[in-house]
Amino acid sequence: MSLTKISAVVVILAIILLGVGAYLLGRRTSQNTSASPDKIHASYNPGTTRPGAGYGDVIPGLKTHRPKSNGSKMVPDDAQRQKGYSYLVIQGGVRTPKEALDIKKFLYEMGINATVHRSSHTGMYMVKDMHGFTNIRSEQTRAAIREHVAQIERLGKEYQSRGGRHGFKQDSITPWMITEK
User: Fold this and answer.
1) Angle at CA of residue 98, ends 148 and 153, nearest 5°
2) Does some domain include residue 1?
3) Would 32 be classed as within a structural domain?
4) How confident is the prediction along the chain (181 residues), in pLDDT tens digits per residue?
5) Residue 128 lies in a domain
6) In which domain, by residue range, is 137 found?
7) Domain total of the chain
8) Beta bridge partners of 115
């Protein structure tokens, strides 16, 4: 079998594409076991607070939905949501379940109930709000969503100031909402 220059280039490109595809597929479907979790989270410690800034402190300009004092608890990650309501994805692209749970706990302490979900496409985790919105096309609901997103972003800044990696930043035009079906 002889190869011309053109067919040799095509074969080499096909081999390169197969290699890149295998690499991406392997990266997407496997966990990173080479790095120890201690090394990954060395700089990530949301439990650390600056002097005088405990979790119970009031953040200027921040309205929270504090959990009721009737002993309510964090909702489980498989909590049912109202069908037809849209829910904000507070933070996507979270690499580890520990980090996602830290975000969920922080939000709960700040009065926001959320759940953690793993993306079937990327294998990463997302933290999704339990506060649902109906009729997201109405101007009144859009205003309520903007106010809620501003609150979540303020919490994200606070979370980062305590050592968290994520800032809960949303797209200013269209926040990441998922409608429950």
Assistant:
1) 20
2) no
3) no
4) 566 888 888 989 999 999 888 877 776 665 443 333 333 332 333 333 333 333 333 333 444 444 443 456 888 888 888 898 999 999 988 999 999 999 999 999 998 999 999 988 888 999 999 988 988 888 998 899 889 999 999 999 999 999 888 988 887 667 788 888 8
5) yes
6) 37-179
7) 1
8) 128
